């Protein structure tokens, strides 16, 4: 069974797309070379990656890397559906050309994750019933568009957005067709938000088609809430780290994943300031810990 699980790492540890000053000195080639050297076989896509699939494929294939997926920002609650749909199709076609099977989608309508001054806990957006309806219907339509290329959308619950808590994830899953809308399971965002990741995994395991492994530094998470920090300032302070370096015990999480016969990618995604947390060193640390816990 575990042969069907592949391990990837996200480039956000090398260069942060939301705060390009973090890791601006790290090149694309350094990033993917260190990913491969650390023992990963997949990557998600960062801003420094070539936009031409043929060019990107050449860089990745000689390093034994494949594209696991890439983030897509939807604005289904705040903009006309057509705007999101047009951008989505271009994103879908690029990922399809790279051989990816899933498309990571996160609703950014009303999101505060990119606002440097907005306290991530106090200012968290809450959708109206009408916005929930727009979100659910829009996501189902994006799911249909993904199916045109034999792909799936996986919804990314995320800090500072309208789908963050267990209750909100449950509501989204109830409101959407399981055939059209799948779920991304992110350990770090769940624990940071105060949720129980194993309960979320077990409840929605049939919908989970993509996994992000990130860890949380407990003291930093508590400080972010107490000091009313924004999401991005929390990242700068080091709230996220790689599996095995923070408060999360991944052994019971892996037990649940293993028992569910999950197939797909597990992506290490731990955005930190690379000047404080050397990306290659932390990638090696993550790979070693995952090997210990999972045998992968």
Topology:
Layout: E1 5-9, H1 28-37, E2 42-44, H2 53-61, E3 66-69, E4 71-74, H3 81-97, E5 102-107, H4 129-147, E6 152-156, H5 166-175, E7 181-186, H6 187-193, H7 197-204, E8 208-213, E9 215-216, H8 218-226, H9 231-237, E10 240-241, H10 250-259, E11 264-268, H11 279-294
Parallel strand pairs: 1-2, 1-11, 2-3, 4-5, 5-6, 6-7, 7-8, 8-11
Antiparallel strand pairs: 9-10
Catalytic activity: scyllo-inosose = 3D-3,5/4-trihydroxycyclohexane-1,2-dione + H2O
Pathway: Polyol metabolism; myo-inositol degradation into acetyl-CoA; acetyl-CoA from myo-inositol: step 2/7
Cofactor: Co(2+); Mn(2+); glutathione
What do you see in this structure?
A 9-stranded parallel sheet has the order 3-2-1-11-8-7-6-5-4. The protein has a single domain, classed as Divalent-metal-dependent TIM barrel enzymes (TIM Barrel, Alpha-Beta Barrel), CATH 3.20.20. The chain is built from 11 helices and 11 strands. Helices cover 41% and strands 16% of the residues. Helix 4 (129-147) links the parallel strand 5 (102-107) and strand 6 (152-156). The chain has 296 residues and is an alpha/beta fold. It has helices spanning 28-37, 53-61, 81-97, 129-147, 166-175, 187-193, 197-204, 218-226, 231-237, 250-259, 279-294; strands spanning 5-9, 42-44, 66-69, 71-74, 102-107, 152-156, 181-186, 208-213, 215-216, 240-241, 264-268. Helix 1 packs parallel to helix 11 and helix 3 runs parallel beside helix 4. InterPro entries: IolE (IPR023952), IolE/MocC (IPR030823), IolE/XylAMocC-like (IPR050312), Xyl_isomerase-like_sf (IPR036237), Xyl_isomerase-like_TIM-brl (IPR013022). Pathway: Polyol metabolism; myo-inositol degradation into acetyl-CoA; acetyl-CoA from myo-inositol: step 2/7.
């Amino acid at each position: 069974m575990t042969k069907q699980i592949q391990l990837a790492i996200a480039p956000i540890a090398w260069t942060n797309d939301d705060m390009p000053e973090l890791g601006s000195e790290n090149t694309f080639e350094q990033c993917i070379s260190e990913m491969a050297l650390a023992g990963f076989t997949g990557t998600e896509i960062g801003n420094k990656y070539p936009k031409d699939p043929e060019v990107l494929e050449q860089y990745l294939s000689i390093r034994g890397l494949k594209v696991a997926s890439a983030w897509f920002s939807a604005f289904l609650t705040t903009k006309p559906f057509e705007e999101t749909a047009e951008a989505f199709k271009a994103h879908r076609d690029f990922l399809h050309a790279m051989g990816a099977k899933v498309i990571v989608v996160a609703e950014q309508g009303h999101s505060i994750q990119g606002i440097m001054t907005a306290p991530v806990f106090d200012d968290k957006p809450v959708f109206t019933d009408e916005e929930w309806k727009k979100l659910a219907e829009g996501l189902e339509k994006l799911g249909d568009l993904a199916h045109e290329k034999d792909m799936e959308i996986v919804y990314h619950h995320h800090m500072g957005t309208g789908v963050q808590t267990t209750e909100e994830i449950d509501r989204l899953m109830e409101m959407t067709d399981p055939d059209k809308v799948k779920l991304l399971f992110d350990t770090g965002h769940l624990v940071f938000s105060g949720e129980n990741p194993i309960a979320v995994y077990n409840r929605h395991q049939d919908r989970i088609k993509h996994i992000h492994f990130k860890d949380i530094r407990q003291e930093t998470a508590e400080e972010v809430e107490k000091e009313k920090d924004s999401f991005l300032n929390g990242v700068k302070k080091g709230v996220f780290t790689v599996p095995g370096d923070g408060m999360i015990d991944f052994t019971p999480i892996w037990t649940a994943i293993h028992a569910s016969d999950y197939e797909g990618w597990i992506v290490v995604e731990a955005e930190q300031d690379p000047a404080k947390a050397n990306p290659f060193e932390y990638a090696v640390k993550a790979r070693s810990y995952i090997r210990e816990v999972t045998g992968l």
